[in-house]
Amino acid sequence: MLNALYGKFGMKELNSKLKIISVKEANKITKNYNYSVFAKLNNDKVLIKYSSRINENLRKLFKTQEDRLSEKAESVKSIFLSDTGLGKKRGVPSAVHIASAIAAYSRISINEFKNIPGNPCIMSDTDSVVLPKKLNEQFVGKEIGQMKLEHIIKHGIFIRKKLYAIITDQNKEVIKASGAKSKFLSF
Predict the structure, then answer these.
(1) Global model pTM greater than 0.85
(2) Alpha-carbon gap, residue 62 to 81, rounded angstroms
(3) β-strand partners of 53
(4) What are the CA-CA distances from residue 77 to residues 97, 134, 186 (Å)?
(5) How much is the pLDDT for 74?
(6) Residue 74: exposure state from Cβ atoms within 10 A (0-12, 13-18, ≥19)
C-alpha cells in the first residue's frame, strides 16, 4: 500500500536542536554543524535546526576556502559551497502527523481484508495479510491501493508480526525474523 511513504515521513532526526538565535550565532552554527532548517525571522533573529558537528577536516577545508573567498562576491561564494557540498543542508524532513495519518488509514483499509466471511485472517501487518483463500481479482494487482500477491503458501508458521516461516507452492522456504537473524533459523 504506501508503506515506504509513511516510513519516510515518520523518520526522526536524532539529537537535533531547533532554536531562535541571532544571525551571528547562526553563522557560527552553519559552519560547524549539519543543519536542515534556516529561516530568517527578522533583521537579527533566525530559526535554525541543527544536529551533529561537521567532520573536523571538512570544517578546516571550509575555513580555508572561505578565507580565500572573503573578498569575492556572495554569489561566487554560494556557487563554491554548492559545488563542494560544504553548504549542503542535511537532515531528515519529518512530519509525524502525516506518518500517523497514513498508518491509521492503512490499518483501517487492511481491516476490510481481515474480516472477509469464510476467509479468516491468519496474520496481518499494516500493509499485508495472510489468508487461506485467494482474494477477489479486483483487489490484487499493481495499481495503488491494490494488494500484491507475494506468495502462495503451502505451509506456514506464524509466531507474530514480522516473525514467520513459510514454504511456498514452489517449495521455497521463506523466513522473516525481525529482531533475529533469519539465517540462523530454519523451518
Answers:
(1) no
(2) 9
(3) 33
(4) 38, 61, 59
(5) 54
(6) exposed
> Using H for helix, E for strand and C for coil, what is the string for 102-117?
HHHHHHHHHHHHHCCC
Give SS3 for 79: helix
Do residues 164 and 123 touch, judged by C-beta distance below 8 A?
A: yes
Distances (CA, A) of 172 to 40, 122, 128, 130: 58, 20, 20, 17
Distance of CA 44 to the CA centre of its chain: 34
The 10s digit of each residue's pLDDT in 113-167 is 899 999 999 998 877 889 999 998 899 988 877 888 999 999 999 988 888 999 9
Would you say 124 and 114 are in contact if contact means Cβ atoms under 8 Å apart? yes
How far out from the chain centre does Cα 91 lie? 12
SS3 15: coil
| Burial class for 3, CB neighbours closer than 10 Å (0-12, 13-18, 19+) | middle
What are φ and ψ of residue 178, in 5° steps?
-65, 130
Give SS3 for 71: coil
Cα–Cα distance between 21 and 27 in angstroms, integer? 10
Residues 30, 82: Cα–Cα separation, whole Å: 14
Collapsing DSSP states into helix, strand and coil, what is residue 93? coil
User: Do 127 and 1 form a contact (C-beta atoms < 8 A)?
Assistant: yes
For 31-58, the DSSP string reads HHEEEEEEEE-SSSEEEEEEEEEPPHHH
